[in-house]
Amino acid sequence: MFLSQVFMMDRKLATISLGIICFCLLIRITLEQTVGLQSRDERVSMIQLRSSLGLRSRDWPIKSDPCLNWTGVLCRNGRVVGINISGFKRTRIGSRNPQFSVDALANLTLLESFNASKFLLPGPIPDWFGLRVSSLKVLDLRSSSVTGSIPTSLGNFTNLTTLYLSHNSLIGAIPSSVGQLSSLSVLDLSQNLLSGIIPPTIGTLSKLELLNLSNNTLSSNIPPQMGDLRSLIDLNLSFNSLSGSLPTDLKGFRNLTRLDIKNNSVSGSLSADLFSALTGLQSINLSNNRFSGNLPDLLFSLMPELVFLDISGNNLTGLLPNVTSNVNNSRPATLNLSFNQFYGVLTSTLVRFDSIDLTANYFQGRVPDFVSKNGSLIGNCLTNVSNQRNLNDCSKFYADRDLGFDNFGLPNATGPSSGRKSNNKRWIILGGVLGGFAIIVILAIILLILYCITRKKRSTNPTRGGVESVLPIEATPSPSVLNVGEAFTYQQILQSTDDFNEINLIKNGHSGDLFKGILLGNGIPIVIKRIDIPNAVAARKEAYKIELDFFSKVSHMRLVPFLGHCLENEDNKYLVYKFMPNSDLSSALYWKTNSDDDSLQSLDWITRLKIAIGAAEGLSYLHHECTPPLVHRDVQASSILLDDKFEVRLGSLSEVCPQENEAHQSKITRFLRRQTSSSELSTTGSPTATCAYDVYCFGKVLLELVTGKLGPKALVESETKEWLEATLPYINIYEKELVTNIVDPSLLIDEDLLEEVWAMAIVARSCLNPKPSRRPLMRYILKALENPLKVVREENNNNNNNTNSARLRTMSSRGSWNAALFGSWRASDVGTTPVVPKTEGSSFKQSGTSASQGSGNNGGGDRSSSTRRQSKDIFPEPFDVEDGNR
Fold first, then answer.
1. Residue 247: DSSP 8-state
2. Residue 159 CB neighbours (<10 A)
């Protein structure tokens, strides 16, 4: 009894002691958090950082103590140890010229964490950063518009545990100095423009748990030293240009749960040795590579936690393993073996998967009852489902490999010899049929050769390593087209859009309805275009094939990322794109603020110029780097999509087609086109397939960026005429101040930025020249937008003694791009007072000029009536004919 009482007393004393200790710790933590900033140098540094980043007073009030009242500032014992400005907005002044200006961090000697994700820091990371802020443990610069290369000095962050640099524009190679980050557990460099090899020194990061290098342009092999990363849990190398084979040392990843190497060029076999130790894997994605050989049984037998396996789009073959194991059935599992060469019957291995995709293989026999109904089995040799391969394809595949084939359930010998005899009979019959057409085919070839020889004119476009023609489109998509992106199942499409809930409807596009969705499993936001085939007009029924063929041959960073398709439904086809967080230019030009007054905020000028250059890069690629040149035919604000960093991705690509060759059209054809329409429309009502038409439409977009007013739709000629008549007279290469009458009043611009606005307006008007042959080429437009000040500032100062020469703003020494740009402007004599440049046979009315100047060559007649009379020849979208035929 005595002993039990002593024991109870000891327990009470221990409980009281523990409570006292916890109370003391709570008091200490509270005191640490309520102590103001003690270091005067650090306060000065925080004020400098506030100024250089242009942070708002509501976040960092200048008269308050940073440790007590500044949002996102963490202090310990009166010293700054953490700064979090993620998602902060700059002041209006600070947003005019944002830069990577964080010099003040060098004086925060105890700083452990700096988080500037989703806060714009355009510019390179300075070389001194890793040398003078070496106390950092966490550095997060995701989606911060960081440019340049990764400095080698980052290797001095020996205390760093977390490094996020994803979703930026970093270039160059990954420095080998990352191997010095011995404490690093998270390294995310995804969604950049990094190139070169993966440095072998990464293998020295013994504490690394997450490594994400996806969506870059990394090349060469995966270094075998990476097998030393025994703490690694998540490895993502997808969407690069990696080659070679998987190193066998990957079996050292004993803790790995997620392996993603999709969309590379990795080859070799998936040996059992490779995966023998990776029993904890939950997700494997090796799709769209060049793997070959058989599928090891242990992928199913020794991985009970595996819930996602995607090896689609490879050259794998063999029988489907028939194994059962103690699997974890508490979570839904997905299996994708599509677009390989697997054969044989479906086995009980499929029982563990809730969703399967076996599209485009050679599985035969009947589909067992245990196979999930939530999946795709099309394009195989199965007997009791529809949309299978034809009998000849299946028979030939099995006969070539000396395998038995059940002939879709019909009686047939199972041995390889009988299969060959059956095939021989078919080939004899087929040869007889083809022989009857042999002479006709030979004659057709001869006639085609003669026709080519007699052609007088040939295309003058040189080969530039671009794409071949996007057309013609085949009646059914070819295997190469079906390999574009991922082949989603109809069930995946339904789940991602919540059964096409109206809440997820973005808009009703002219080529299909657009829905927002979320891919299950990885949470990626997507946009799904639903094409209703039965209700589509005849010209739109095949539009989805044009896009598939386009994306199978064309790839560029300025095109909307295409993720995949779902074609298994006969009535509806689905195309899947990456979701653009900032929608399109028509929606992003103005947006509602979070304030209670429901006011609007507009894009700043730097962003507008960035958007113009990005769109010009995309169109320049289509016009000048593709063979033959490709015409977008739907260039407008709603076609210019914007990602989270306002980088341009061209959308609305269902109208893209090769440029028409005007040189091959007769004069009669061009005359008829001139008589049938005064706008750039073909006789079918569609835009003409010429690059000049794209340039004209792009000129409207530039005008919208300058004025802040969205113009009318491309094909509304009367409204376009009225809009341009009210705008173009204020664009003059001699008078900068005129453009202020049409500039978006919400833009805050200084004198230098006004010159850039003026330059863009001049480029826009050059694009809107009524004569297609006088519009500048898109590559010249891109050069002009990249060098706006050269458009309006005189480069040659040899004429400084001439008092009137300063008014001529165009460059004196014309290069190719600026000569083409100003080719449509007709400058008056330099020694006289300049007037508004005239388009051929017309004049423009402008403020600030006399009536005699404004009337130009009209003989002093009534200017307003002359403008009305001539405007038809100036403003509408002109037909695309040569000047000589006008």
1. -
2. 15
Q: What integer pLDDT is reported at residue 324 of this predicted model?
A: 66
Q: What digits encode the pLDDT tens for the residues 651-699?
A: 988 888 888 764 444 443 444 344 333 345 554 445 677 899 999 999 9
H-assigned helices in 598-716:
605-624, 667-676, 691-707
Residue 868 lies in a domain: no
pLDDT for residue 847 is more than 50 = no
Question: Are 618 and 575 in the same domain?
Answer: no
The helix (H) or strand (E) run that includes residue 479 is: helix 479-482
623: buried, middle or exposed (CB in 10 Å: 19+, 13-18, 0-12)?
Answer: buried
CA–CA gap between residue 242 and residue 264 (Å, rounded): 5
**C-alpha 670: how far from chain center:** 39
What local confidence, expressed as pLDDT, does residue 672 receive? 38
175 found inside a domain = yes
How do strand 146-147 and strand 258-260 relate by DSSP bridges? unpaired
Q: How far is CA 811 from the centre of its chain?
A: 36
Query: Does 786 lie in the same domain as 751?
Result: yes
How many domains does the chain contain in total? 4
Q: Which domain holds residue 500?
A: 479-579
Q: Which of 233, 262, 268 shows the shortest CA–CA distance to 247?
A: 268
CA distance 267 to 794: 57
Amino acid at 218: L
What ranges make up the beta strands (E) of 548-627?
Answer: 562-566, 572-578, 590-592, 600-602
Q: Are residues 201 and 142 in the same domain?
A: yes
Tokens coding 753: 């930025």
Check: CB of residue 419 under 8 Å from CB of residue 411: no
Backbone torsions φ then ψ of 784, nearest 5 degrees: -65, -40
The highest-confidence range among 245-259, 718-732, 834-848, by mean pLDDT, is 718-732
Alpha helices in 122-230 (DSSP H): 129-132
80 shares its domain with 143 = no
Provide the whole-model pTM.
0.48
Alpha helices in 35-107 (DSSP H): 40-53, 66-69
Q: Contact 566/656 with Cβ under 8 angstroms?
A: no
Q: For the chain, give the number of residues.
A: 886
Decide if 54 is inside a domain: yes
Which neighbouring-strand residues pair with 186? 162, 210
Q: Which of 228, 634, 643, 744 is catalytic?
A: 634
DSSP for 491-502, written as a single string: HHHHHHTTTT-G
From CA 242, how far away is CA 267, in angstroms rounded?
Answer: 10
Q: Residue 408: how many CB atoms within 10 A of its CB?
A: 18
625, 740: one domain: yes
What are the residue ranges of helices labelled H in 677-750?
691-707, 717-727
- In one-letter notation, the amino acid at residue 634 is D
Same-domain check for residues 755 and 627: yes
Q: Is 634 part of the annotated catalytic residue set?
A: yes
Q: What is the pLDDT of residues 550-596, one digit of tens each?
A: 888 888 889 999 999 998 888 889 999 999 988 899 888 877 655 55
In a domain, 37, yes or no: yes
Contact 769, 802 (CB under 8 A): no
Rounded Cα distance, 861 and 865, in Å:
8
In the three-class reduction of DSSP (H, G, I as helix; E, B as strand; rest coil), residue 292 is classed as: strand
For 284, phi then psi, to 5°, come to -130, 125
Dist. CA 704–CA 638, nearest whole Å: 12
Please say whether the beta carbons of 86 and 119 come within 8 A: yes
Token match 């009209």: residue? 858
Burial of 679 (0-12, 13-18, 19+ CB in 10 A): middle
The rounded distance, in Å, linking the Cα atoms of 727 and 146 is 37
Residue 104 has what DSSP assignment? G
Pull the structure tokens for residue 742.
């049409």
Q: Give the Cα separation of 533 and 105 in Å (integer).
A: 59
Sign of the alpha-carbon torsion through 321, 324, 326, 330: positive
Same domain, 58 and 134: no
